[in-house]
Amino acid sequence: MTARAALARFAFSFLAAGVAATAAHAADFDWKKFQGKTVTFLANNNPVSQALLAHKADFEKLTGITLKVDSYQEQQMRQRLVTVMNAHSDEVDVFMSLPSREGQQFAAAGWYADVSAMTKNEVAPDYDFAGLSQALLKAATYDGKLTSLPMNIEGPILYYRTDVFKKCGVGEPKTIADVEAAAKKIKACDNVLTPFVSRGLKPAVAYTFSNMLHNIGGSYIVDGKSALCSAKDKEALDTYSRLLRDYGPPGVVNYSFYQISALYRSGRAAMAFESSNELRTVMEGGERLKDTALIPFPAGEAGQVPTAIGWGMAVSAYSKQPDAAWYFVQWATSPAVQKLMAVQGIAPPRSSVASDPDYRKWIEEEPVRKQWQAALDVLAAKGSSEVGYPIVANPESREFIGQAVQDLILKQKSVDQACADADRALDALISQK
Amino acid sequence: MAAVESVAMGDGADAAGEGRQRLELAALSAPAVLFTVGMIAFPLVYTVWLSFQSFSSTGKQSFVGLANYAKLISDNEFWHGLWVTLALYVLSLALQLVLGVWLALVLFHARRLSGVVRTLFISPFMMPPVVAGMMWLVILDPSLGAANYILTSFGLPPSDWLASPTWVIPTVALIDSWQWTPYVALIVLGGLQSLPPSVYEAAQIDGASAFKTFQRITLPLLLPTIVTATILRSVDLLRFFDIIYITTQGGPGNASNTLNIYGFRVGFEFFNIGYSSALMLTLTAIVFGAVLAFNRLRGAVAW
């Protein structure tokens, strides 16, 4: 037997043993094990948690666990979490978290419980852990510890008006240069419409900007140093800010998802580069249902490297009942529940749900939903979860990216000056421990 | 002699009674004192202690003494924040005092104003700041908002309002003044109603003009009330937070990054609780200093 065959055989027997063990555990899995307990869930009041919590009663009925929900807007939720965690309080058992933003930071601070063992030993037979998006699971794993389980998959995509494109004689943009050319043509052909809109609000810029940076082939860090002044990064900074300055709405430096969706929905923008999660908001009222097409952001020199992230559900390291908390996480990220959420427009982080007949039926109802799913498939396959610098101080790094972009939109600095100022601040952040 | 003795004894008994009474008073007020200490002194002392600590991004804590305060001095964003805070303070306070006194005079002299109109006048400050902020955010939106629509329909050029680094401070000051001028007016109206009518009658007999009456009688007599309003507004304005947080989050760039917004973001978004505490204590000292100064001024203008 060759070494390789021996290895393969060993791996197979290991796998078989693992499967047998899982099966044994699954057989004695009892949803009612923690009956009578109360689990506290700190939720971000966004469409993801809303879709989930619509089925709260099902969870309580299934497990006999009382679910106490503390729901806040995103920033307030994080503020409460910081307070609770700094006090090492057991007040919160389960919380929502964005691994791409705070994962590294919270993991280093020791706020996440490691749920790796639970996903193997304490799972219902139909949980299908392996069916969850591997990329998102990887993005939530730090030092071999799994810190959260994905609730959805999302990322910025390009919404554009097919009727306006037709009227102005513009085809579907295939490259970033096409986007700019289309914006230019639309500006000339319809002077009321905003040709292109994307995020300009300082802390929000990194979400969409990262996608463009990666498409162009830039990197945030090269050899341990901030690289915003590298040729590719400068090109990304310049292109992103130029698109918003020349073709964006006035006051775009205060624009985040809220303003962008409102502008696009009201029919006043021809292209909007915004989160896939905004589909429901954008389509509210149905005015944009028939004249909108959706695609992943067009390619740059490095092709398409879309941003794909997901909200995760984490068990607090200070929870006194991590096992009961895990039951809630498991229920919320199970195929059955994610299917229920999917038909409410929450893109599932499981391919099995994405191919489920009921979900397919919902998708087929509208062409725009089909395009939405197709764009999400690209995100799932090629996506990068890098939004801002891959460092512990990621949230703060987004400030400096945003500042550089705003300086350029407002013409307060040259590209060289803006990138140099940002690099200096970011190098200090990178060296921070 | 006996009388003297009895008086002396009476004194002793009185002293004992007084002591007991004091003890009783202390015991009765103890819960309130303890509550106050718990609610005010403890958080303050805790913040002071936090301001001597450094928190790394990973939440590791270490004692750094006065390093956080030393960092303030070399932190450009701190000085910028201080400037923004003071600019916004001076502009908003001036607007609110001038318009507030004017509104109070209008309300005072309009004796036949209906209850509905009076309620409308004072309604803005009853509105939660979040609602006011969201409302103005929509009105001032450069492309969708009503403000630019009105400007352009009169042939005036549109403004970027909250999105312009130059105009963001005046715009925020306008929003805050819209909300809080009626509050100042209400305080001043109270002051106007308590002014003695005799001095006005005397002025009338002497044939003083309306402007002279205002300048020489109403305004000096109103000063203590105006200073009270100034103190109340100063405490809020120096800690300016809510409307900026809703509308610009300190932007565009850092054009509206007040000390309070900066401190909040350093603490709750970047998790540097130590430095954030130092920033907040500095702000507290500024607010406290302003209140003390105005309190002295109130003493000086009292009549």
Can you characterise this structure?
The complex is a heterodimer of chains A (433) and B (303). Chain A has 433 residues and is an alpha/beta fold. Chain A folds into 2 domains: 3-153 and 309-367, Periplasmic binding protein-like II (D-Maltodextrin-Binding Protein, domain 2, 3-Layer(aba) Sandwich); 156-308 and 373-431, D-Maltodextrin-Binding Protein, domain 2. Chain A contains 20 helices and 13 strands. In chain A, the strands form 4 sheets. In chain A, strands 2-1-3-13-6 form a 5-stranded mixed β-sheet. In chain A, helix 11 (231-247) packs across helix 19. The termini of chain A are far apart. Residues 1-24 of chain A have low confidence and may be disordered. Chain B has a two-stranded antiparallel ribbon. In chain B, helix 2 (67-74) crosses helix 12, helix 3 packs parallel to helix 7 and helix 7 (168-193) crosses helix 9 (210-238). Chain B has 303 residues and is mostly helical. The longest helix of chain B is centred in the first third of the chain and has 49 residues, at 2-50. Chain B has helices spanning 2-50, 67-74, 76-109, 115-122, 129-139, 146-153, 168-193, 197-206, 210-238, 242-247, 259-268, 273-301; strands at residues 53-55, 61-63. Chain A binds chain B through residues 75, 78-79, 82, 85-86, 105, 108-111, 194, 201-203, 249-254, 259, 262-263, 266, 268, 392-393, 395-396, 403, 406-407, 410, 412, 432-433, and chain B through 56-60, 141-144, 158, 160-165, 247-254, 268-271, 273.
